[in-house]
Design goal:
The protein is α/β, with parallel strands linked by helices. About 60% of the residues lie in helices and about 10% in strands. It has 2 domains: about 90 residues, Orthogonal Bundle (Methyltransferase, Methionine Synthase (B12-binding Domains), Chain A, domain 1); about 130 residues, Cobalamin-binding domain (Rossmann fold, 3-Layer(aba) Sandwich), CATH 3.40.50.280. The protein is built from 10 helices and 5 strands. α9 links the parallel β4 and β5. α6 packs across α10.
Length: about 230
């Protein structure tokens, strides 16, 4: 029996089966299959935003949960992220055209002295997957880099991550600087990283500590919903 007979023909699946298959393909990090499936759904007149939320975000939510629970590991998650990026690349210009709901804008980066970026990359990717615009500053960011970026990008959220106990305190330096400049209340500050906890987040004056990428997305959505409600009420 040839390999080809084992292959699933994506275009022969109905919508529901195709979305389920996309969940599997994302999980397995199959970029080309995800790109093909996105194009099939577009041909079937699915709204870009629906493809993003139901297929891509739906699939990445499973990946995020299994990563949190220790079922998936970093290399597999990065493969899934890469497959998601393939789908996002097709959808991004279409989302812009259709004026998909703008969730908000986040500037994210690892703090000064810390070169660990896997957790940050995961958050960045999951946030994009949830419809946020993300500006990733990479690793080893000093105060100025964060401040300049949140101002220039007119961000809603600042995300900082650290993996070392020695670099954690730098988060407070950034927040204290924002307070001194009188801009602290203009932004939601989310912090994360393995050695952090809720108490630490409170102690340094962050809005929230997020224990993983899935929590970061949920937390960011809550803050943005609150902000939209306040604007509407105002």
């Amino acid at each position: 029996m040839s390999d080809e007979e084992d292959d699933i023909i994506l275009s022969e699946l109905n919508d529901e089966e195709l979305v389920q298959q996309m969940f599997d393909d994302l999980y397995d990090g199959l970029k080309e299959e995800i790109e093909e499936a996105v194009n099939i759904l577009l041909e079937r007149k699915w709204e870009p935003y629906r493809i993003l939320t139901e297929a891509l975000v739906g699939g990445m939510t499973i990946v995020g949960a299994d990563f949190r629970d220790g079922i998936l590991f970093v290399p597999e998650v990065l493969l899934a992220a890469n497959a998601m990026k393939g789908g996002m690349f097709i959808l991004k210009p279409l989302l812009a055209e259709t004026g998909a709901p703008r969730m908000g804008k986040m500037v994210i980066g690892t703090v000064k002295g810390d070169i660990h970026d896997i957790g940050k990359n995961l958050v960045s990717m999951m946030m994009e997957g949830a419809g946020f615009e993300v500006v990733d500053l990479g690793i080893n960011n000093a105060v100025d880099a964060y401040i300049d970026a949140i101002k220039a990008e007119e961000a809603d959220i600042l995300g900082m991550s650290a993996l070392l106990t020695t670099t954690m305190p730098y988060m407070k330096v950034v927040i204290d600087t924002m307070v001194e400049m009188g801009i602290r209340d203009d932004y939601v500050v989310l912090v994360g990283g393995a050695p952090l906890n809720e108490e630490f987040g409170k102690a340094i004056g962050a809005d929230s500590y997020c224990r993983d990428a899935a929590v970061a997305v949920e937390t960011a959505k809550e803050y943005m919903a609150r902000k939209h409600n306040q604007l509407a009420a105002g």
